[in-house]
Amino acid sequence: MDPEFSESSEERLHDEDEHEEKFHLFGRQKPVHTALGGGKPADVILWRNKQISAALLAGSTVIWLLFEWIGYHLIPFICHSLILSLASLFLWSNLSSFVNKSPINFPEIELPEDVCTSVALLLTDRCNKSIGVFWQVASGKDLKKFLTKHEDQVDTYAQKAKAKLKRQYSQLDEKVLQKLPKVPFITDSKQH
């Protein structure tokens, strides 16, 4: 028997193989579930909770159809959703006495005064600083100095951002938007 491949050297090779890390795609160190933060959000993203994942996919598809194809806008959508939820809660609370069910118990929300005061002061300070910066930029005091001082860096970042946005839009256009059927959803009532 070859002295290099004695039984003890074979055992060492086997032990080394056991201690080597498992190969992960893209050089990950952790499982995908752990890399996504674990818990319920990772379960939804990885489709481990199929009902919630399907509901989120269906809901986002409906919202995309409303906004993109039908031409619905965000503010009316929010207002109509709030009106619908308010009307359903009103009906539930009033009709619950007729069907002998208990009405919905809404919890009392009480915010401490010191928390509200500190948030208001913080927002006031941030708004004042933002208005000051906008005033300096609008009056031409700060923007020109900033652009001339960092002109090369601003141009480089703007060029990189523009190229990246063009590349991402072309991929989106090629893979998704070109494959959508061209169907007009909004009809003009004046043509009839």
Automatic annotation (TrEMBL):
Domain Reticulon, residue spans: 41-147
Membrane-spanning segments: 73-92
Cross-referenced Pfam families: Reticulon (PF02453)
Region forming the signal peptide: none
Its membrane topology: Multi-pass membrane protein
Source taxon at top rank: Eukaryota
Keyword Nucleus: no
Keywords for the protein's UniProt record, in alphabetical order: Endoplasmic reticulum, Membrane, Transmembrane, Transmembrane helix
Subcellular location, principal: endoplasmic reticulum
Descriptive protein name: Reticulon-like protein
